[in-house]
Each structure stands twice: as structure tokens, then as C-alpha cells.
């Protein structure tokens, strides 16, 4: 297994009076796609938001690229964490509906003031992943379809090189054909050795993309291993997730 780019050790998160994460432990190996799976309400989104500093870990330690970024001893702000090289694609997509596709990407490129400052080669690579973004380059993002908005959300996260992508349920609400297109784009991204932590309820996508997996339940990680092993073990799937991957192909 590769060297971890991200490590969570005994991470607890409180939101107001509620204790949501109860000692979360897992690693994200460099250059791999790590799936974070679990039933609704297991704590997956809270985990991503805690990594990004949107909610602060009340106990434990989050280490990124060998340096502490959250928890005991070091609590960086969300902008500081982003500057370290982590991009977050939230479940809500986080795009600006009144801005064009071009303006959304430009805003996400921290080093670019105008579109001429964007890395042309990287932009063409993004258009190769998501051709619709080139077609609708000057359209307001709010007029895009759900799938196109999701593509824009991912494109914003990769418009500049990042060390780690956190992606929360990218297939939610999308039609099967659009999901297949998204899987293809993320597989291409995976071939570039991009490190990804991916929360996903679509198990065909989890099987197609995942290298390693952490399964959460009630704010804890209850299983860690290789995604291929989980995909082959229906009894383990039912025990951990209450269903089998075979039923969701």
C-alpha cells in the first residue's frame, strides 16, 4: 500500500450538543481512490467537513502530507487547509449559479486573474474529461443540467493541481447514463494518480473506482480494507451496509 497522504487518528467531532464522530481512524494512500462508505447518517459528510476545517475536530488528529491540519495541537482554517493542496467537492456542488462556466473555473483557479492566466493544456484536459463544459463555456452555471453542474463542480476542484480531492456523493440525483459518464471521467482522473477520498452511495461507482475502502457506522469506522475484497464478499456487504453490491449493479 502507498504512503498515506491523509491520516485520521481517533477523530471526534461535536456539532453543538451532538457528538457526531466517535474516534474515526483511517488513512488515504497516495495515488489511490479511497471509498468512504456507510448508511445514511453514518458520519461520512461530517468526516469530509471535519477534514476541511468546516467543523473542528474536538479530539484526535488529522495529518495531511505529513503535517497536522486538524484536531489536537493544530487547527488550521478552511482556506489554510485548501492552500495546502486539498480540494472539496461538496454534495451541494458549491457552484455559483449566476456566474458562467468560465467564471466559475476562473474563480477556482487561485493563481489566475483572467482566463488567459489559466493553464491552457490543463484546461483542454478538463474539456476532454467534460466536453459539455467547453460547449457551455459562456452559459450561466445555473442553466446547466444536474449532471453538467456536477461536472463543473469537479472541474473547479481540479482546475489547478491538487494533492487530494474530497468528493461527496457526486452521482446523487443523476440519471444512470450521466453516472456512467461521470465514472469514465473519474477513471481518467484516477489514471493520473490523483489521490481521491470519495463518498458514494452508488456501489457500481464504488466498485469501478475504489482501491481501498473505509466503512462507517454511527460515527465510527467499522471496516477498513481493499475495495475489491469488499466487492466480492456479499455477506460482509450485508453486515456492514445492509445490502449487497450485486443488487446495485
TrEMBL record:
GO biological process, one term: L-amino acid transport
Residue intervals of the ABC transporter domain: 6-243
Coiled-coil boundaries: none
Superkingdom of the source species: Bacteria
Pfam family, one: ABC_tran
SUPFAM superfamilies noted in UniProt: P-loop containing nucleoside triphosphate hydrolases
InterPro entries in alphabetical order: AAA+_ATPase, ABC_transporter-like_ATP-bd, ABC_transporter-like_CS, BCAA_Transport_ATP-bd_LivF, P-loop_NTPase
GO molecular function, one term: branched-chain amino acid transmembrane transporter activity
Keyword field contains Transport: yes
Alphabetical keyword list: Amino-acid transport, ATP-binding, Cell membrane, Membrane, Nucleotide-binding, Transport
Family note: Belongs to the ABC transporter superfamily.
Descriptive protein name: ABC transporter ATP-binding protein
Naturally occurring in which organism (per UniProt): Caldimonas thermodepolymerans
Amino acid at each position: 500500500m502507498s504512503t498515506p497522504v491523509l491520516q485520521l487518528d481517533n477523530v471526534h467531532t461535536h456539532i453543538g450538543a451532538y457528538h457526531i464522530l466517535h474516534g474515526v481512524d483511517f488513512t488515504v494512500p497516495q495515488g489511490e481512490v479511497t471509498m468512504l462508505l456507510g448508511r445514511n447518517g453514518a458520519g461520512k459528510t461530517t468526516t469530509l467537513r471535519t477534514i476541511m476545517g468546516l467543523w473542528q475536530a474536538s479530539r484526535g488528529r488529522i495529518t495531511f502530507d505529513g503535517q497536522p491540519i486538524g484536531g489536537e495541537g493544530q487547527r488550521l482554517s478552511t482556506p489554510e487547509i485548501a492552500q495546502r493542496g486539498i480540494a472539496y467537492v461538496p454534495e451541494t456542488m458549491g457552484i455559483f449559479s449566476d456566474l458562467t462556466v468560465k467564471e466559475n473555473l476562473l474563480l477556482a483557479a487561485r493563481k489566475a486573474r483572467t482566463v488567459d492566466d489559466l493553464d491552457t493544456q490543463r484546461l483542454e484536459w478538463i474539456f476532454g474529461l467534460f466536453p459539455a463544459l467547453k460547449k457551455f463555456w459562456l452559459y450561466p452555471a445555473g442553466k446547466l443540467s444536474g449532471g453538467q453542474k456536477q461536472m463543473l463542480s469537479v472541474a473547479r476542484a481540479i482546475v489547478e493541481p491538487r494533492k487530494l480531492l474530497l468528493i461527496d456523493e457526486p452521482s446523487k440525483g443523476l440519471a444512470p447514463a450521466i453516472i456512467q459518464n461521470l465514472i469514465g471521467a473519474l477513471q481518467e482522473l484516477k489514471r493520473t494518480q490523483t489521490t481521491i477520498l470519495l463518498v458514494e452511495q452508488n456501489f457500481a461507482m464504488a466498485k469501478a473506482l475504489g482501491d481501498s475502502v473505509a466503512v462507517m457506522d454511527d460515527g465510527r469506522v467499522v471496516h477498513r480494507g481493499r475495495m475489491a475484497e469488499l466487492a466480492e464478499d456479499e455477506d460482509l456487504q450485508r453486515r456492514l451496509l445492509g445490502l449487497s453490491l450485486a443488487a446495485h449493479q
